[in-house]
Specification:
This protein is mostly helical. Helices cover 58% and strands 5% of the residues. It has a domain of 47 residues. Strands 1-2 form a two-stranded antiparallel sheet. The longest helix is centred in the middle third of the chain and has 24 residues.
Length: 81
């Protein structure tokens, strides 16, 4: 039972505000800076979202907005390269 307590498991639920802490210290600290891979991955996801919006606009026959979204996606893709 003691090994479970050391790992942070308790038989009674913890009150609000205490969850996620062990011994009064935060269990996981937030990262301060993003790595290059994370940044590129976010940019790729943004390009993908823009392309999906462009396709959706095309389906709804809003061609001008579809073209603008596609151009924006192409510009962001160039930044990735």
């Amino acid at each position: 039972m003691k090994s479970n307590m050391k790992a942070g498991f308790q038989s009674k639920p913890q009150p609000e505000g205490v969850a996620g802490t062990i011994g009064g210290k935060a269990a996981i600290e937030e990262k301060k800076e993003k790595t290059e891979e994370e940044t590129f991955k976010e940019m790729e996801e943004e390009v993908h979202r823009l392309l999906e919006r462009s396709a959706t606009c095309k389906v709804h026959r809003n061609v001008t907005e579809a073209l603008l979204k596609a151009k924006e996606a192409a510009a962001k893709e160039k930044k990735i390269r």
